[in-house]
Design goal:
single chain, six-stranded mixed β-sheet, alpha+beta, elongated, 276 residues, four-stranded antiparallel β-sheet
């Protein structure tokens, strides 16, 4: 019996839905299922999108049925398979895929210990419980649970623990930044000078904004927008900002990977938010 089939049958017997992998991806749909011609739904939440006997529809083909796993059609796929995959959500599990040493260090500092499985570049941390799958929830970290597949790399070591709120929170989108209170610029006293035009005050504010963007480690888009919003709220109503200041902010944002268009959009949206 093919080694992958033996592994698949053992996993299926323990309630873990399995499917064959070709390299690191599932087998493509057969001709009658190509382009969803069979009527299967790519976003379906349960396995078995159609009556096709083959391992079609990626994660949705995962099964615990030994007759399917050993069927003639699947046997042909197993002979070309390079690995066994499983559907974590179908087994009641969530996998935190840590892709590098930095991600692993972050997990040790922020997540409760659980069963860990070594991967080629990092580790899979397995938790009991299911959740929404998502990629790139932070640098080097993916979540594989419902409607996803993970490569079987062995049972791992350690005691599996319950899925913590800290992991669930990784897929929650950040709320829109709160609208700042309107900034009221005091009327100039006779012969006085607007405090916003003091070079040291303005330069310090722009420098702090540059630092905030440069030190951002995640949510770069949101950080850039919120920083632009803060700068405009403080300095944007009295005409003290000039092209040099704006260029400094845009350069800091682009150094973090923002495009010129994203910078322009964020700046325009912040001005609109403040009614400038």
């Amino acid at each position: 019996m093919n080694e992958h089939v033996r592994t698949a049958l053992s996993l299926a017997a323990s309630g873990v839905p399995v499917l064959p992998l070709r390299a690191k991806v599932p087998f493509g749909n057969c001709r009658r299922c190509a382009d969803n011609a069979c009527g299967g739904r790519p976003n379906m939440k349960t396995a078995g999108p159609c009556a096709c006997p083959g391992p079609c529809h990626a994660w949705a083909a995962a099964t615990t049925d030994p007759d399917v796993i050993q069927s003639d059609v699947w046997r042909h796929a197993w002979t070309r398979a390079t690995a066994v995959a499983y559907h974590p959500g179908g087994a009641g599990l969530s996998v935190v895929d840590l892709d590098n040493a930095e991600a692993i260090a972050w997990a040790h500092a922020n997540l409760p210990a659980t069963r860990a499985v070594p991967t080629t570049r990092g580790e899979h941390w397995l938790y009991q419980g299911t959740m929404q799958s998502a990629n790139a929830v932070r640098p080097g970290v993916d979540i594989k649970s419902t409607m996803a597949y993970a490569r079987w790399l062995g049972p791992g070591t350690g005691t599996m623990t319950e899925l913590p709120d800290a992991v669930r929170a990784l897929t929650v989108k950040e709320p829109a930044p709160a609208r700042p209170a309107a900034v009221t610029v005091p009327a100039l006293a006779s012969g006085g000078e607007c405090r916003h035009r003091t070079p040291a005050y303005l330069d310090r504010g722009v420098a702090m904004a540059e630092q905030r963007i440069t030190e951002a480690r995640s949510a770069i888009h949101a950080t850039v927008y919120r920083t632009f919003l803060a700068v405009l709220a403080t300095h944007g109503r009295c005409g003290c900002l000039n092209d040099v200041h704006v260029a400094r902010l845009f350069n800091a944002a682009q150094a973090k990977g923002e495009t010129a268009r994203h910078c322009t959009d964020a700046w325009t949206n912040a001005r609109t938010r403040l009614g400038l």
